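ok so for the tutorial part 2 we go from a plain amino acid sequence to predicted structure tokens. step 1 is just haveing the sequence, like this:
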Amino acid sequence: MIFHDASKYCYNWLKAQSFVKEESLTDWLLYYISNHNRNVYYKAFTRNEEASNGSDWEWWILTDECSTTKAYRLLIQAKKLKPNNTDNYPLVTYSNKNGFQIDLLIAEARARNALPLYAYYSCCSPNIDEQCKNINYISDAMLKWCENCVNGCFLTSAFALHKNVFSNPRRKIVDQELIDASFGLSLLDFIWGEPGKASSLLREFNNHFKDSNNDRNNWAGIQHNYKDLPVYVKTLIERREEDLSWLDREFHHEIGILSGVVIVDNRKRIFDQ
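step 2 — the prediction. this is what the tokens look like for a chain of 273 residues:
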């Protein structure tokens, strides 16, 4: 399973070379999953500073639902956690002249109707009971599906992280606390199962986004119709076998300062778009 394998490799890499850069891990991860699964593909853009929106990569997960294509949008910021009881508070509350990075990530995600996530690189082993207690937007059954998996990459909601960090006084935050509020990247292999199972996980992501924005019933949230996708996303999906080196220049304003876009295409067959 592609996400299991990639996350385990990150774990082994961190164990062998503790000083590996998060940029190296991210670049390798995206290359690996796209090179080993024909239904995952990505385009790296000219690397830009993240100061304005606090995000690294935009991910799209495509699914078949009710005889049409739906796309779920995620914004992901990578962080390599400091191990061995080191304080990670400065890492998760990083700021610059534009404000807190987490605030910028959340604001950009709301503007794009995308779920803001942090990707943590860490060798810390999660406690499944703590995960089930802390992650209220994914069912216990789904979390326990990967209870014994080895992960070096974990995902967590920026909404939940913001609430946990900024609703409490300044304190030491170690890697164990952050990982116990995260789920392993391996969990994304859940989407390759039956279509209903994939949709159930993505709906939970979507409901978490809508709950976090106090608007559960009135809009689609992070779920997008194929016809409404940004042109640069459609181009990558429909012309991915071509040379698309021009893509970030052509759609510079629409892409903004993203480092790239990842497409996870879970469609069983191509419908009329």
